[in-house]
Every structure is written in C-alpha cells, then in structure tokens.
Amino acid sequence: MSLSRKRKKELKRLRRSAEELWGNQQAVLEHANAVAREASHQLGNLTREEVVPRVRSGYETYVRPGMEQAKGFARTAGSTAERTLGNVLGSVLSIGDIANDARVRRAVERVSPRAVAIVDKKKGPGVGTYLAIGAAVVAAAGVAYAVWQTFRADDELWVADDEPSGTAGSDSPAL
C-alpha cells in the first residue's frame, strides 16, 4: 500500500500530535498523583491534630461518665441481688432446719398434734416432679415431630436432579 506524500505528512503530524498529547497526559497524571499524596499527608495531619483530640474529649465528656454510672448501677444491683438472694435462701434453710429440729417438734406436739403432720416430710412425688415429667414429654414430642418432618416422604419437597425427557421428543410439556 503506497501513500501519497501529503498523506504521509498528515500521518506524521498526527503521530507527533498524539505523542505530544501522551506526554502531556503523563505530566498531568504525575502532577495529580503528587497532589493526591500531599492531600493524603495533610488529611493525616488534620486527623492527628484536630479529629482525634475532639473524639477523645467527647468520649471523656459524654461516654465515659455514662459508662461509669452504668457500671456503678450494675455493681449495686448485683450486690443487692446477691444479698437479697442470700438472705432469702438462708431464711428458707433456717426454717427447714428449725422445722426438723427434734426440740421444736416436741414443743409443737405438745401444743397441737395436728401441726406435726404438716411438718412431716411428704412421701411420694410432688408438683415439681409432675411438671418435670410433663416438660420431658413435651420436649420428646417436639424432637419426634422434628425428626418426622425431616424424614417424611413428601414428593413436593424434593426436586429432581435431571428433568425427565419426553418420549415424543417435543419441547412442550406433557399434560
């Protein structure tokens, strides 16, 4: 393919122009990278000098006192609950010990023979036993139902891996 001199000059001028444009673009990109590096450096300085101290003072002013107050409330509530529970448990155990003491039984027997029957230990299962048995039955029924749901043979739950191919060779589904 032979080109005329005029076309060769135009192509040469176009090539020089493209190379000059490429050089200018490279210079612009270098300058943009330098500006971005400087902006990043300045942002780091601004963060260290302005943002971090403000966040730290805001934490110290607003968040930390609330956290200290909540910690104090939790500590007080915990110790109060511990004391209350300890007192209640101690009282219940003391009442049980007193009720089982032989001297107290004899004293109550002298006052009222019927009252001793109330203090005597019960024989046989109580309400708690029946509640525990009921909870166990409900839990077992739940597990059995879950297993049944998992292993039941329900055709709608299963998706075939391969579509059945039609015997007629048509693409329309058979009705």
Report on the structure:
The protein has a domain at 10-77. It is built from 4 helices and no strands. It has helices spanning 5-100, 102-111, 113-119, 127-151. The two termini are 67 Å apart. The mean pLDDT is 80.
Approximate strand percentage? under 5%
- What is the count of DSSP helices, taking H or I runs of 4+ residues? 4
Molecular shape: elongated
Would you tell me the structural class of the helices and strands? mainly alpha
DSSP summary, beta strand count: 0
- The succession of helices and strands, N to C, reads HHHH
Low-confidence stretches: none
User: C-alpha Rg, in Å?
Assistant: 44 Å
What is the helix fraction of residues, given as a range?
Answer: over 70%
**Whole-number mean pLDDT:** 80
Oligomer: single chain
Gap from first CA to last CA? 67 Å
* Main sheet makeup: none
Name its key features:
175 residues, mainly alpha, membrane, 4 helices, transmembrane helix
Topology (SSEs and partners):
Layout: H1 5-100, H2 102-111, H3 113-119, H4 127-151
Helix pairs in contact: 2-3
Protein name: DNA helicase
Transmembrane segments: 127-148
Keywords: Membrane, Transmembrane, Transmembrane helix
Concise account of the structure shown:
With 175 residues, the protein is mainly α. 79% of the residues lie in helices and 0% in strands.
